[in-house]
Specification:
about 675 residues; alpha+beta; 3-stranded mixed β-sheet; 21 helices; about 35% helix; metal-binding; Cyt_c-like_dom_sf; heme
């Protein structure tokens, strides 16, 4: 033994706490340095948003019976019927393995979070289809409105995978709570927040990538890798997974949205998002991108199959064009790559959209032709036997017959001229249904069936926020080299119509242009996509017409808003097309009496004023006199979205009941409190 060994041992005994502390501090510094370096490399937001809590409640699906049986599908089929979409930017096997994000990215070294598909995703406003199932169980399920689609090309993976995307029910299934019961409304406006979903999912993926860069403190990534890879878990496959995750986050960082007007819960700028997906992302042309600036409340969809024009601005006629366009907007795959050189062919418009499934969904929604047994005899009614408007449940406060009677007369005086007679009136079926006539190749043609003719009102007449009505009218896109060459039916206004034209609906040929009108370009892309599916599936002409719903692909950029029937209106809050009014009472009041701030994301139903219950915090905010200017109030407070109606795109003006003739959008006289309550009581019955 060396002579100085005892001295060394003695020194170590005295200094070991200091040595161990130094080593620990050094290790922490290394981890911190590696974490900071990884964070800077990712260049991506890893902190998730603050979300509302999820309430575990008894759930009731409001009975809207009468739907037709579609082939052999189950009652739950529409909720998970694939429309060929890949809305979520990661494969299905990643999604079910993904943990919810930590509130603070630095804490990923400690502990384990529950699955993203457990309770966490329902805090974003999605509906739990099987509420009796333990949300923390290992048998994870997709929320209502999400569906799997096999073999979809995935950004960041350079391969196809099973994707997860929205179905129509994701945006068109509503929910509200009352007395500790959750009511689900088929066809109603969804309560989801797509912006928060994007941020939450991005944070969860990003934190997993961050973990992968911190070995040996990479337990979050290790758990993810073992679930995804299963028996294929090894050093090589794990390295490939790590690389794919990193590439995916890089792709997400490139495609983050520019938000001019925050959408928030229950709202989506659907038209601009569709345009951005189709003409900016699919064509890889960033110059075609338009900021999010015209959010609308998710529209309720009962009865819409039989409208002559759909969308808030009455811009689309054919059901298949509407549904295929929706699928493209929520990331169905479509080949729209423009040729890089003269030797390449233009886009083929081959897509992942299953046109036959879209038809089945439309059949489920529409039911049989409403006038199939109607002869026009006095007193005889047609029948909506597809998705019907929800009836006021018996478990909500009982309706008051005297108020209903008084409200019915007020409806006739104040609402019927625009929104048509109530559907239980023979005049509704007798006076408002007409064939659609259009001119094609010099011949005037008419549809076989009659459709519900809705009133359309200009922005000047109705006075509501103009943002959404102007999207299709004002936006242009560059479609050069895309290969568009298709005939579309367009609405010709009185200034364009010539004496030779025998119909307001005319067919024109749409081709590529550097400044294509957005409405026509989108209609042409969807038409080309549908036609490609017909070719690939050897679809006979008669079958094609059936799939198209017996209507031509007619489009218009009206610059106004349509007035639809008010059946089921009680279950569709918030109100106005942009969701800027919380309840019917405020909608029937003078615009100056409507709240400046509307809180969205709360589910508690207000059965008196009929709409969304507002918190004490928002009520206090609406009384403050020291408010900052518009656009400077925090969009999210306490986990909920605060809609500032002073901001363009969010205005709550118009549709005004007032005696002041100078108010824009005056549509009727001022109503007393008693009249409002009577009219609301009647609207509950529709």
């Amino acid at each position: 033994m060396p002579r100085d060994y005892p001295l060394i041992l003695g020194w170590l005994r005295k200094k070991w706490p200091w040595i161990i502390s130094t080593l620990i501090a050094f290790a922490i510094l290394v981890v911190v340095f590696r974490t900071v370096t990884a964070l800077s490399e990712l260049n991506y937001g890893l902190t998730p948003p603050n979300l509302p809590k999820y309430e575990h409640l008894e759930t009731k699906f409001i009975n809207q019976s009468g739907w037709p049986s579609i082939k052999h599908y189950s009652d739950e089929w529409p909720y998970h019927a694939s429309q060929g979409t890949a809305t979520l930017p990661i494969p299905y096997e990643w999604l079910i393995a993904l943990e919810a994000p930590k509130n603070t990215p630095w804490f990923i070294l400690f502990g384990q979070e529950k699955a993203f598909l457990s309770e966490y995703i329902y805090r974003l406003g999605f509906v739990n289809l099987n509420p009796s199932t333990d949300l923390d169980s290992t048998q994870l399920q997709l929320p209502l409105g999400l569906a799997k689609t096999a073999s979809i090309p995935m950004p960041g993976l350079n391969r196809s995978a099973t994707a997860v995307g929205f179905t129509c029910t994701a945006c068109h299934t509503g929910q509200f709570t009352y007395n500790n019961i959750r009511y689900v409304v088929d066809g109603g406006p969804a309560m989801t927040d797509l912006g928060l979903l994007t941020k939450s999912l991005g944070a969860a993926i990003g934190q997993t990538v961050l973990s992968s860069k911190l070995a040996p403190f990479d337990s979050r990534f290790e758990r993810f890798a073992k679930k995804v890879l299963g028996s294929n878990y090894n050093v090589v496959s794990k390295a490939k997974l790590k690389s794919a995750l990193t590439d995916t986050v890089s792709q997400l960082a490139k495609t983050q949205d520019t938000i001019n007007v925050t959408e928030g819960f229950t709202r989506l700028d659907a038209l601009n998002r569709i345009g951005n997906k189709v003409f900016a992302d699919n064509m890889d042309r960033p110059e075609n991108y338009n900021p999010i600036e015209a959010p609308v409340n998710y529209p309720h969809i009962w009865t819409t199959s039989w409208f002559n024009w759909v969308q808030y601005d009455g811009s689309i006629m054919q059901p298949l064009i509407r549904n295929a366009g929706e699928a493209l907007g929520v990331a169905a795959y479509v080949d729209m790559q423009v040729p890089a050189n003269i030797m390449q062919q233009p886009a083929t418009f081959s897509s992942s959209i299953p046109i036959d499934t879209l038809y089945d969904i439309e059949e489920w929604l529409a039911g049989e032709y409403p006038l199939r047994n109607y002869t026009g005899a006095s007193g005889q009614l047609g029948e909506i036997n597809g998705l019907r408007a929800p009836k006021w449940p018996n478990s909500l406060p009982i309706l008051k017959p005297s108020l209903v009677k008084a409200g019915k007369e007020l409806y006739k005086q104040n609402c019927q001229q625009c929104h048509l007679q109530p559907m239980d009136s023979p005049d509704f079926w007798k006076n408002n249904w007409h064939e659609i006539s259009y001119e094609e190749n010099g011949e005037v043609k008419s549809t076989t069936h009659k459709y519900l003719n809705l009133n359309l009102y200009s922005i000047e007449k109705i006075g509501t926020d103009p943002a959404q009505a102007l999207v299709l009218k004002n936006r242009t896109v560059n479609t050069k080299e895309l290969g568009l060459n298709t005939d579309l039916c367009v609405a010709v206004d009185k200034y364009q119509k010539t004496p030779e034209m025998r119909s307001d609906l005319q067919f024109i040929n749409v081709q590529d242009s550097a400044t294509s009108n957005f409405a026509l370009a989108l209609g042409a892309v969807v038409e080309e996509t549908n036609q490609q599916w017909f070719k690939q599936n050897y679809t006979p002409f008669d079958t094609q017409q059936q799939l198209e719903g017996g209507r031509p692909n007619c489009l218009r950029h009206s610059g106004g808003y349509k007035a639809r029937p008010l059946n089921g209106i009680w279950a569709t809050a918030p109100y106005l097309h942009n969701g800027s009014v919380p309840n019917l009472y405020s909608l029937l009041s003078k615009p100056s009496q409507r709240p400046t701030f509307v809180e969205l994301g709360r589910l508690e139903f207000d059965p008196v004023n009929v709409g969304i219950t507002q918190s004490k915090h928002i009520e206090a905010l609406n009384t403050r006199k020291d408010l900052p200017p518009a656009n400077q109030v925090d969009d999210y407070q306490g986990g909920y979205f605060v809609l500032d109606t002073r901001q363009a795109g969010n205005h709550n003006t118009g549709h005004a009941f007032t005696n002041d003739t100078s108010v824009p959008g005056k549509i009727g006289r001022e109503l007393s409190h008693e009249e409002k309550m009577a009219l609301i009581e009647y609207l509950k019955t529709l």
